[in-house]
Amino acid sequence: MALKFLQVGKLLSKSFQNLRINPTPSSLLSQNHQINTIFARNYPGFFTKLPADHLWKAVTSVSNAGRKRGRAKGLMRKKNLNRGQIIGVGKANIQWPGLSAPIIRGRELVHRQTLPPDPEHEAKIIKLRESASGKRFNRLTPLERGWSGSKMPGRSIGPPDPIGEDAFEGFDTRVIELKTVVNMKGNMGRKRRLSCFVVTGNGKGLAGFATGKAVESKNVLRKAKNRAGQKLMFIDICDGHGIYHDFFCQFGKTKIFVYKKPEGYGLVCHRAIKTICEVVGIKDLYAKCEGSPTVQHVVKAFFLGLLSQKPYAKTAEAKGLHLVKYSKETGFFPKVVASPTRCRTEKEIRENEIIDYSIFAMDGKLPLKRKKFPMFYESSYGYQVYLKKLEKRRNHFTIKENMLVEHGEMKSFLTDKYPECKPGRLPKREPEDQES
Predict the structure, then answer these.
(1) pLDDT, tens digit, 9 for 90 and up, residues 348-389
(2) For the chain, which terminus, N or C, has the lower number of CB atoms within 10 Å?
(3) Burial label, 103 (beta-carbon count in 10 A; 0-12, 13-18, 19+)
(4) Helix (H, G, I), strand (E, B) or coil at 338
(5) Percent of the chain at pLDDT exceeding 70
(6) Final residue of a domain: which of 334, 353, 372?
């Protein structure tokens, strides 16, 4: 930039090609007054001749060789410096009539005035720029995050969109898989899209799963959950917390062995199966997966197993027999859980008919469990001596536990007749003095 001070005569004699001046009144030119005028010329420079994209490229780009070596991970993101900027609002908090304030307020004419400074003005603009650049992420609570960090699999994306007047109240949709798929075309080349696999349910037995594909992440999530809401199926839950019986299910090369557990056991299974159980409403279950760990195969196999369950009422009606339950928690006391409309007699039951409910539910099959081999020390002489010494007191702990449950204390069958027939108790230790 060049600055020059010239007289009026020299100024008028100059060509007006590179000069821009305001016309001067003749009264000033007639007098011998010297007018100081500032002349400025704007030369094109690096910051004026290039657009903003070229300037940002200097700090946000990396070579192809550097990108292959992983140097593009910590680069600065492009920021929109115009974000948050409002005409008339700046560092100096000034009220401009017609720009940042009305010209007339009621019947009063608004004048320009300086307002008290706003110390948070710059902080707000910086926060807007950082959030727009995508550098900082909102911290998620442990209940909101997915299976690993802030990735989508395992996260909730809300209920499906309502269809007309029908709304999905109480439904929750979980993402099972979100990946990028590529389709190669002869004329279009590689076409990249996102594929999303979700499961939705209301926690009361209604559930469904579906796959959606789209170019943008918002569209693929919306499409997948709406499709899942249109493919609902009903799953019967036993006693409101678990499954009816053990079952085996398979899809492709994926095999799943599912076992019924008592209330309060929890969900000990694959993370995809756990997510499905939370959506369906199952609270207690144990599952073991074998074969291919493909997530979509795991979900499809587990749904096939849930739908193939045989509820108590339908089983009793199909067999024409009473269904009786024996459990360790109730001391193996028989409990009738379902009865048919007409019970068959003993003569009508065939000799080779399956009576065991667990075997009947597995279609006459049982899982082949791996044989447990003896430990290396069980054949030693010392372990045999240990077993001989343990022989006389091998059931002491079980008997003591049963007595405490039934009677509330340790006692013998002669205690009622002879009250002194009780196990001795150690006297309570008195607190020792501080000096001793």
Answers:
(1) 888 888 888 988 988 888 888 888 899 999 999 999 999 999
(2) C
(3) exposed
(4) strand
(5) 85
(6) 372
